Amino acid sequence: MTGAPASVVGGTGTASPAPEDVLTRPTVQIPNSGVAPPVAPSEPPTGYTPTLITPVAEIPTDFICVTGDNVRTTFKDGKPAVTTADANVTTYKNTVTTAQSARVNYETNIAEFGGGVVFRIDEQEIRGESLTLNLKTREWALRKASTAIEPQFVRGYLCAPVFVLGESIEGIGRKSITAINSETTTCNLTIPHYELRSRSITVYPERRIVLRNVAAYALGHRLFALNYLVIPLRNVPENPNLIPRFGQSVEEGFYMKSAYAYTGTATQAGFLLLDLMSRKGIGTGIRHQYQLNRGLGDVQIYRLEDQTINQTTLTGRLNHTQRIGDVDVLLTSNFRNNSYIYAPQSKSINNLLSLTRNTQSANSSLTISQGIDDVFVQTKRLNANLTHRQTLANRALLNSNFIYNSFGGTNTPNTARLTSQASVSQAGPRFDWSLSAQKIDDLSAESFVGGGRFGGIERLPELAISSDTTKLGNFLLFGAPANLKLAFGEYNELPSTNNIGRAYFEIGTPSLQHKLTDTWTLNTTSGFRQFAYSDNTAQYSLYTNTGLSKKLGQSSTFNLAYRFQEPRGFTPFRFDYVGKYNTLNAGLSIKESERFKLNVLSGYNFEQKQFPWQDAIIRCSIQPSENFLLYTATGYDINRKEWRTLINQMRVRIGDNFRFDLGTRYDAVAKKLAMVRPQLDTTIGNKTRIQAVAGYNGFTNAFDYRSFMLTRDLHCWEASLVYTNQTGFYQNKSLMLYMRIKAFPVFRQFGVGTFGQAQDTSVGDVY
Question: What pTM value is reported for the model?
Answer without folding.
Answer: 0.72
